[in-house]
């Protein structure tokens, strides 16, 4: 199966998260790899969801290259699509569909390049492919996989095929997501003085975030951290004083921030009337551009970092955060055919030629010594 046909097929699986339903697409990818000589194992993650690990040509002398991607996609959004989001239709050289850029085209390129590479001669050290469920809600699938005690061996380098327009990026910010909750005392809305309005309490806390100062120096690679309130909930009905309210906080961190210290600082800022529940805790990713693996990748795909203006890092979080930590800081690159500007967008697409280039890039990397 060629890479474009496979990308079209993967888009046709509806893996919108929630609920994900990645079991069927995971088994499809697994069976394709198994049919081409890979040893494939499935690891359940919640109902009707699977992580996939496929390996070939492993050696005790040399660690394999790890190629990784996720199988879930975000919801379609409120705006109506002009194309069928799960058809995988090609129009004017663009492959349309939810997940085309983020990141089923990248997954397709991983699979076909690995199969082609293994068919001619398995690369030194072999290949390990990790396809994860539930990445879009904080890399929960890959985190569950590594926390389950599964032995994922060692790695000499990791490539995560997220959308970068095929540019090899060596880092990204971390992510700390949390729910902040507070309580009040309910009363009839005609007598608000008899109650304590939890929404007012939350609102006062939220205004403290709008101009929040991290009081840290700028990271030379990752820049400054950011903070955002994404969701606010509170109250039960219009004619009652609300006795509970909650809001979400999304911190995109750098190496200058300790997540546990950040949580303590927010607790101090809000006070004892608030509880903070961390729901996602992912560290930043960083790889030295002078590392041997980065040089191998750059040479294989013809990149000159001094002249080609490659971005230093990405603002979004990927499974690389979990994998680099698991593999004890191994060189990790984020590189895939999609466009970051198309991720999560209505009428999402990926350039067909970019997908072909990604397959060729991965093949060249796997064949490099």
CA-atom Rg in angstroms: 22 Å
Q: Based on the coordinates given, report the CATH architecture of the largest domain.
A: 3-Layer(aba) Sandwich
Helical proportion, percent range: 25-40%
The 3D shape can be described as globular
Q: Largest sheet, order of strands side by side?
A: 1-2-6-3-7-14
How many individual β-strands?
A: 15
Tell me the name of the CATH class of the largest domain. Alpha Beta
Which parts are unreliable, with pLDDT below 50 for 5 consecutive residues or more? none
Average pLDDT level: 97
Structural class: alpha+beta
What is the H/E order? HHEEEEEHEHEEEHEEHEEHHEEH
Overview of the structural elements:
There is one protein chain. The protein is an alpha+beta fold and 369 residues long. The chain has 2 domains: 3-172 and 284-367, 3-Layer(aba) Sandwich (Aminopeptidase), CATH 3.40.630; 174-282, 2-Layer Sandwich (Alpha-Beta Plaits), CATH 3.30.70.360. 29% of the residues lie in helices and 22% in strands. It contains 9 helices and 15 strands. The strands form 4 sheets. The chain has a 6-stranded mixed sheet with strand order 1-2-6-3-7-14, with helices on both faces. A 4-stranded antiparallel sheet has the order 10-11-9-12, with helices on one face. It has a 3-stranded antiparallel sheet with strand order 4-5-15. Helix 1 crosses helix 3, helix 3 runs parallel beside helix 9 (352-367) and helix 7 (292-301) crosses helix 9 (352-367). The longest helix is centred in the N-terminal third of the chain and has 21 residues, at 100-120. The two termini are 26 Å apart. The relative contact order is 0.20. The model has no long low-confidence stretch (mean pLDDT 97).
């Amino acid at each position: 199966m060629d890479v474009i046909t496979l990308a079209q097929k993967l888009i046709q699986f509806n893996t919108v998260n929630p609920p994900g339903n990645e079991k069927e697409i995971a088994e499809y990818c697994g069976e394709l790899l198994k049919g081409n000589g890979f040893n494939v194992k499935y690891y359940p993650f919640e109902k009707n969801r699977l992580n996939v690990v496929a390996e070939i040509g492993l050696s005790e002398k040399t660690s394999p290259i790890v190629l990784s991607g996720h199988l879930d996609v975000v919801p379609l959004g409120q705006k109506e699509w002009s194309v069928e989001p799960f058809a995988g239709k090609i129009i004017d050289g663009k492959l349309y569909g939810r997940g085309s850029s983020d990141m089923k085209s990248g997954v397709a390129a991983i699979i076909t390049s690995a199969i082609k590479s293994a068919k001619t001669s398995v690369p030194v050290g072999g290949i390990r492919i990790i396809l994860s469920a539930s990445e879009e809600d904080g890399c929960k699938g890959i985190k569950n996989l590594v926390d389950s005690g599964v032995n994922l061996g060692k790695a000499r380098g990791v490539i995560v095929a997220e959308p970068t327009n095929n540019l090899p990026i060596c880092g990204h910010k971390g992510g700390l997501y949390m729910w902040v909750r507070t309580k009040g005392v309910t009363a009839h809305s005609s007598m608000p003085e008899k109650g304590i309005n939890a929404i007012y309490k939350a609102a006062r806390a939220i205004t403290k975030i709008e101009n929040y100062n991290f009081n840290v120096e700028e990271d030379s690679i990752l820049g400054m951290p950011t903070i955002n309130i994404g969701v606010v909930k509170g109250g039960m009905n219009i004619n009652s004083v609300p006795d509970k309210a909650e809001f979400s906080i999304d911190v995109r961190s750098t190496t200058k921030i300790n997540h546990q210290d950040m949580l303590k600082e927010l607790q101090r800022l809000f006070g004892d009337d608030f509880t903070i529940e961390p729901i996602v805790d992912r560290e930043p990713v960083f790889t030295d551009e002078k590392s041997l693996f980065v040089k191998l990748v750059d040479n294989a795909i013809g990149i000159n970092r001094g002249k080609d203006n490659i971005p230093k890092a990405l603002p979004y979080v990927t499974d690389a955060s979990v994998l680099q930590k698991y593999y004890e800081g191994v060189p990790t690159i984020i590189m895939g055919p999609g466009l970051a500007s198309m991720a999560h967008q209505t009428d999402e697409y990926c350039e067909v030629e970019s997908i072909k280039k990604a397959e060729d890039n991965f093949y060249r990397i796997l064949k490099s010594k």
